[in-house]
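User: Here's a chain of 250 residues. Predict its fold as tokens.
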Amino acid sequence: MSSVNESTNEDLSLKMRERSYRILERFQRTSISGVNHPKLLSILADVNAYWKDILRPSLASFSSEAVGGKSNAADEACLMITLMGAGLGIHDDIIDRSLSKHSRMTILGLHGVDNALLIGELFIVKSLTIIREMIKKNYNTETIEKIIEEFERFFLEVWEGEFMETLCRRNLETDLDEYLKVLWMSTADTEVCTRFGAILGGGSKSEVEALAEVGRRLGYMYRLADDIKDTLNLEGTLHFRLANESIPLP
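Assistant: Prediction complete.
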């Protein structure tokens, strides 16, 4: 049975990598487009070397197909999320003073706070410009308005979740329900990927909401797993988290 499970997991991982390849390739091209300074290009090369997000692009692709759409129907919208996620992730490392994460140096650790702040801002701006690509591809006005509306909701929820998490920093008396709410809000990105996939794949309202719920709960499980890893100190960074971030779940 274990060999069957391993084979299934490998097949799924392969499919996820295949689905995300288009987005990651465009992510790299978009990140350096219009940038000329050698130092900036060097920093962006470091970002592109480690930013290999296969979860969010594949969620959007699978969700589109689940409602009868094409696997690439949500590529532009998912590229927006991937670029925004990179920018917010770099800024999150600044807030948490994370010089390293997941056994690698962060952009903050490699290039300092000023450069990390500016590169994070660059990715956020790049994310917003993808709307232009959607207009060029003749998305109808109603669809673009819906995407912008959901994108704004996602950004605000993640931002507020990050703010609430700073209130939990080094606080051993943090209310458990309040902290679980922070974790839930931080997974708005996986929800919006499945939501975009379902919307752009032509799904019905009930299908969109069902897949959005799947995305949210899947992201929540990922966050819970990260907290458990930190609690068990599997990456040797628990002491740093206790000093600079919220206390992980017991």
